[in-house]
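Cross-check.
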Amino acid sequence: MNPSPRPATRGLRRRHVVALGLAVVVLIAAAAVAVNAFDSRAHLRGLARRIELLVDPPPDVAIAAAVLVTPEPGDEDDPLDADPVDPDASGQPLVQPSLAPGATPAATTDATAAPQRVKVDVNLLKAPERWFISETDKEWCAVAGTQIVLALHGKADLTERFQNKLAGRIGEWESRRDSLNGGWGPAAMVKALNAYGVGGYEVRAYQTRASALKDAARAISKYHAPVLLLAWRGAHTWVMTGYRADADPLVFRNAKVSGAYILDPWYPRNSSIWGQSDPPGTYQDASEMRRNYLPWRRPEGNYPDRDGLFIAVVPTETLNR
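Predicted model, tokenized:
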């Protein structure tokens, strides 16, 4: 995950050693800078970061492993790439149909009637722009995403002041097992949510995008709570507040989720790799999900319970607001 600034208490301990290391790096890099300034500066920043991590590594704190979700029938193939499902292949009903927040089940006179397979369009937010804040630092997507989830649960305000405060507390939650670079990873998000009274979230891993999106959709409909998606191979955080599917995923096991409503903390920035970010509440269709929501793969090293899997931070209970 994108790292946040190092905690002040740890910064005091490493300041002099890091300064010495940086001085050495600057002397070594001086000639290279004259040849290729842009590439050398980028290399120098990366080298300085490696020295910092060597001198003052993130703590090796135990974290809960990502929960591996077993794919259901139909999840083996990504529905975003597959042919539309046969509308007669209704599968087995689950618990109850998805409802909008505050809605109640419709009365029926026939308890034995089979559920109808119809398309669903679910979004927790009617005015998504009211529940959005951009990351104030370009490396704070996890901070802003966590802040948005807290705000949706009534536990935070959407101000830069709160975001700065939240970012500054990372020393309480970081672990190298969660982020080899230090700072924020998905486990830190769960701990931050817990610290502010939003319990029940857990890090989950999925073998397919189909499985991840369907599980996220079910959680949104069942608990009326948002999901955090680890996009860009784990380098970025999206807040998922709704979805579209060919059937209700709480009723049909083989429902196919085709896309998601997203709050993207990167907005309104543009990425040279990922392109222009979208306004709050944009529906990310099949092609956009294929392009952005990709299996975890981080350049800094291995994460045994995440590598090659789709990662999400998912609610498991309804919070009393």
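Residues 206 and 212 are 6 Å apart (CA to CA). Residues 81-96, 104-109 have pLDDT under 50 and may be disordered. Passed to J.P. for a second look.
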